[in-house]
Design brief:
The complex is a heterodimer of chains A (about 300) and B (about 270).
Chain A (H helix, E strand, L loop, with lengths): L8 E12 L2 E13 L4 E5 L6 H9 L6 E10 L2 E3 L12 E4 L13 H9 L4 H7 L16 H14 L4 E5 L7 H18 L2 E6 L2 H7 L2 E6 L2 E7 H6 L4 H8 L48 E5 L2 E4 L6
Parallel strand pairs in A: 3-8, 3-9, 6-7, 7-8
Antiparallel strand pairs in A: 1-2, 1-4, 4-5, 9-10, 10-12, 11-12
Chain B lengths: L1 E10 L9 E11 L4 E5 L6 H8 L7 E6 L2 E2 L5 H4 L4 H4 E4 L13 H13 L5 H10 L16 H13 L5 E5 L7 H18 L2 E6 L2 H7 L2 E6 L2 E7 H6 L4 H9 L8 H4 L4
Helix pairs in contact in B: 4-5, 4-6, 6-7
C-alpha cells in the first residue's frame, strides 16, 4: 500500500514530535495514508488525537517547533515538507479552518479578499460557485452569517484551484441546516472538479454521511482505515466501535449511549506500545509485547490491533 | 409547573432607519414537572432569547411567564435575584469554559451558588456531594478552569446549576463544544440526574438527535415563531411543516450513502 507513484498524496510512516516544557509530545506516530484524486476522506478522532497536526502537516502549516522524527509526505511522487518554513514547493493543497469568521481578514471586504487570491475577474464566478450572491462582495465578514463566511473561505480555497481541499472541522458552530448545505457544496465541488477532500472532524456521523473512506485516529496513530460502509457496519478496532456507539445516532434511548472509558494517554514520556490498551476492553497482556500489527481484514480495510473485533 | 403564554421579545436596533428585531414572536407552551422539552431551530431563530426570558435574565416585551403559579414575567431581572423562584430555575450555559470564573477553583465555583443563593455557611459536604453527583473526582476540586478538560468544565457548570436544588434546568447547547464521546457522557449524566432529582429540562440545541434521546416533547422554532411542536417521536418520524422536514433531512445519519457515491463519480 506504500509508495505507488500514481497516488496523488502519500504520507509515509510520518512521526512528528513537539518539544515542550513538559517534555516531548509524540503527536503523530508512524502515520501512513494515501489520498486519490476526487476522493473524500474523513479523518475522525477525539480532541487531542492529532487530527489537526496531521492536516497541518499535509497542508504545510506546521509550526517550526514541530520536529519531523521519521517519514515523509509525497505529492505526486515529490517530497514536500510538513513544516511551514521548510515548504519550498507550492502544491495545489488548500485548507479551510474551523472558525470561518476568524480566518477571514476583518478589515477587507470579502470580494477584495477573493481578488487577492484569484484576481478581480474571478470574484463573481467564485462567489457563484459557492452559491453566494455576488452582490455581497462589497460586504465585510462581520456583515455575513457564519455559514456565509464559511462559503467565502471555501471560495478562497477554491481560488487557488486546489486538487486537495483540507477541511478542518468546517461546520463546527454552524447549525444543522447550514452544515448540510456547506457539506453538500464541498461534496458537489469535489465531484465536479475531481478535487479530493480530507474532512477532519470529531463527528463520525457527519463523516459517514459525506465521505467515501474514513480514517480513525487515536492518540496520534491511525487505528482503522476503511470504507464508510465497512466502518459503520463492521468496525474492527475497539476504539472505532466505541466511538460509533457514542454517537447519538447510534443509540435508541439515552441509556444506550456508550462512552469511551478513560482518556487519551499522556503523549509525553513512555507510552504503551498499543496507545489504546489502557482504555481497551479487549486488552490482554500480549498487547504490551509488540506494536499492534496492521492487519488487512478485508479489501481496503486495515486495522491496527492485535485483537480486532469481527 | 411552567406556563408561558404568548411571549414576545423585540430588540431595538441601532442606527438610522434600522427596524426593531422581533426575536421571539408570540410563543406559548407549558412544561410539567419532570418533563423534558427540546427547542430546536437554526441560529437566530430566537431559542436563546426565549430561554433568557424564562430564566428572567431579560424582560419579555409582551406575554406572561408563570412558574408554579406565580407571575415571574412581571418581576424585573434585578428583583428576581432575591426571589425564591431564582433558586428553582437554573441555567446551564453553552460553553462551560467561557462561563466559569477563571480565578475560582472548582470547589469555589460550586460553593458560590450555595453561599449566595442558599445561604449556606458550611458548604464543604454539600460541594463534595454535588461534585460526586456529576462524577467529578475530589482531586479536581482545587483546580482552576484552565486546568480542566471540556467535559470536566461542563460537569462543573452542571454541578453549579444543581447547587440550589432547582426544579427547572435550562440547558443552552450543553454539549455543542464537546467531542462525540464526551458528549455521550454528559448527555447520559444529564439523563440520569433528571430521574434522580426529578428535574424538568428545557433543552436548547440544533441537534435533533440529542433531542430524540433527551426529550419527550419538541418545539421547532424559526424566525422567532413556533413552526411545529409535538411528541419528539411523532415530529421526528413525520414532520408536518416544510421547515421541520428540511431540518430532519439535514441531520447526518449513520450509514447514509456518501454524497460522492450518489453523484456523478464512477
Amino acid at each position: 500500500m506504500l509508495g505507488i507513484a500514481a497516488d496523488m498524496l502519500v504520507v509515509e510512516n510520518l512521526s512528528i514530535h513537539f518539544s515542550t516544557r513538559r517534555g516531548v509530545v509524540q503527536a503523530l506516530d508512524a502515520i501512513n495514508l494515501e489520498i486519490e484524486p476526487g476522493e473524500v476522506v474523513g479523518l475522525v478522532g477525539e480532541s487531542g488525537s492529532g487530527k489537526s497536526v496531521l492536516s497541518y502537516a499535509v497542508s504545510g502549516l506546521l509550526d517550526p517547533a514541530a520536529e519531523v522524527v521519521d517519514g515523509r509526505i509525497l505529492w505526486q511522487g515529490q517530497v514536500i515538507a510538513p513544516v511551514r518554513e521548510h515548504r519550498k514547493v507550492r502544491v495545489p493543497i488548500a485548507q479551510i479552518f474551523q472558525n470561518p469568521r476568524g480566518s477571514l481578514n476583518p478589515i477587507r471586504s470579502v470580494g477584495r479578499q477573493l481578488a487577492d487570491v484569484a484576481g478581480r475577474k474571478q470574484v463573481r464566478a467564485l462567489m457563484e460557485s459557492v452559491r453566494l450572491d455576488p452582490g455581497k462582495a462589497t460586504q465585510y465578514p462581520f456583515e455575513l452569517s457564519g455559514g456565509q463566511c464559511q462559503r467565502i473561505s471555501i471560495a478562497l480555497a477554491l481560488g487557488c484551484e486546489p486538487q486537495l481541499l483540507i477541511a478542518d472541522e468546517p461546520t463546527t458552530g454552524l447549525d444543522v441546516t447550514t452544515e448540510a448545505a456547506v457539506m453538500a457544496l464541498i461534496s458537489d465541488l469535489s465531484a465536479r472538479r475531481g478535487m479530493a477532500t480530507l474532512l477532519v472532524t470529531h463527528n463520525l456521523a457527519l463523516a459517514a454521511a459525506h465521505c467515501d473512506r474514513i480514517l480513525v485516529m487515536h492518540a496520534g496513530q491511525i487505528v482503522e482505515n476503511a470504507s464508510v460502509e465497512a466502518l459503520v457496519r463492521t468496525p474492527r478496532h475497539p476504539y472505532a466501535a466505541q466511538l460509533l456507539a457514542s454517537t447519538p445516532q447510534h443509540a435508541q434511548t439515552a441509556d444506550d449511549l456508550q462512552t469511551v472509558p478513560g482518556h487519551l494517554p499522556d503523549l509525553t514520556g513512555s507510552i504503551p506500545l498499543c496507545r489504546f490498551s489502557k482504555r481497551c476492553t479487549r486488552y490482554t497482556p500480549d498487547c504490551d509485547l509488540t506494536t499492534p500489527p496492521l492487519l488487512q481484514v478485508a479489501p481496503k480495510h486495515f486495522v491496527a490491533c492485535r485483537h480486532p473485533l469481527c | 409547573m411552567l406556563n408561558v403564554s404568548n411571549i414576545s421579545k423585540t430588540f431595538a436596533s441601532r442606527g438610522w432607519g434600522a427596524k426593531p428585531t422581533k426575536a421571539v414572536d408570540g410563543i406559548s407552551f407549558d412544561l410539567a414537572a419532570g418533563e423534558s422539552l427540546g427547542i430546536v431551530g437554526e441560529s437566530g431563530s430566537g431559542k436563546s432569547t426565549l430561554a433568557r426570558m424564562i430564566s428572567r435574565l431579560i424582560d419579555p416585551t409582551e406575554g406572561k411567564i408563570f412558574f408554579d403559579g406565580s407571575d415571574i414575567g412581571a418581576i424585573s431581572p434585578g428583583a428576581f435575584v432575591r426571589r425564591p423562584e431564582r433558586k428553582r430555575i437554573q441555567y446551564v450555559f453553552q460553553d462551560a469554559g467561557d462561563n466559569l470564573t477563571p480565578h475560582l477553583t472548582t470547589f469555589d465555583a460550586i460553593a458560590d451558588p450555595l453561599r449566595r443563593l442558599v445561604g449556606l455557611r458550611n458548604v464543604k459536604a454539600r460541594v463534595e456531594a454535588l461534585a460526586a453527583s456529576v462524577s467529578l473526582g475530589e482531586s479536581l476540586l482545587d483546580r482552576y478552569p484552565h486546568q480542566l478538560s471540556g467535559g470536566q468544565k461542563a460537569r462543573v457548570g452542571i454541578a453549579r446549576a444543581l447547587a440550589s436544588d432547582p426544579k427547572l434546568l435550562i440547558l443552552d447547547e450543553p454539549t455543542a463544544a464537546l467531542d462525540v464521546s464526551v458528549q455521550a457522557a454528559v448527555l447520559k449524566l444529564l439523563h440520569n440526574l433528571r430521574g434522580q432529582f426529578g428535574l424538568s429540562y428545557l433543552l436548547i440545541t440544533h441537534d435533533v438527535e440529542v433531542v430524540r434521546l433527551m426529550c419527550e416533547r419538541i418545539m421547532v422554532m424559526r424566525h422567532g415563531r413556533l413552526v411545529e411542536e409535538g411528541l419528539t417521536k411523532d415530529v421526528l418520524a413525520a414532520p408536518q411543516s416544510d421547515y421541520g422536514r428540511r431540518l430532519m433531512a439535514s441531520v447526518p445519519k449513520l450509514g447514509a450513502t456518501p454524497a460522492s457515491a450518489r453523484s456523478h463519480r464512477s
